[in-house]
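quick one, 210 residues, struct below
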Amino acid sequence: WALATAGPDAFLAGAPALGRVTAEMHVAMARAFGAQAGDAAAWADAMATQLGRTPGLEHADEAARRYRALAASPAAGVAVRTHGDYHLGQVLRRDDAWYLLDFEGEPARPVAERVAPTSPLKDVAGMLRSFGYAAAVARADAGWEGRARQAFLDAYHATEGISGLLPGDVDLVLGCFELDKAVYEVAYERSHRPSWAQIPLGAVERLLGS
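---
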């Protein structure tokens, strides 16, 4: 987080390595704990519940439509153990290597829910949203977030073993998880840091306006 916010240009050089280590984490989790068929309907139901807790969003009908498309998707990919609370505050960089921290998941959730298998793209979505926050805090140039996202994703998808864990429609599944994270952030910021709410609101607009 400190690198991305204090030195956004330097962070870009390390973004591919972060993408690779993220994919390697998911491959290792699948090998250690196994993988099972993803439950797109359950994921979509949880997303719709969060949407219902966040009133007043523009394009809410479009969000609901995308969640329905996810629920009906025949190619949701697999579910594996994931980090569960993945963002820039959970990684450290030293000597050009990334180290991942704190695998306990979101502290507010029950333990059973934290360790429940889900799509690895949920972690990816959390990290991508973290890039959005870093860009806002660092006041990075308009294209920085997009470059960071692309560098991270390109390396993630190129990592050996990850393709077998991903859904047939990566854009749909990743987009829904990222949208869900942004909707959650809107609710959180409205309650705790109203002046920050514009950051996730902008992400919702970008994700649903496209």
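The mean pLDDT is 92.
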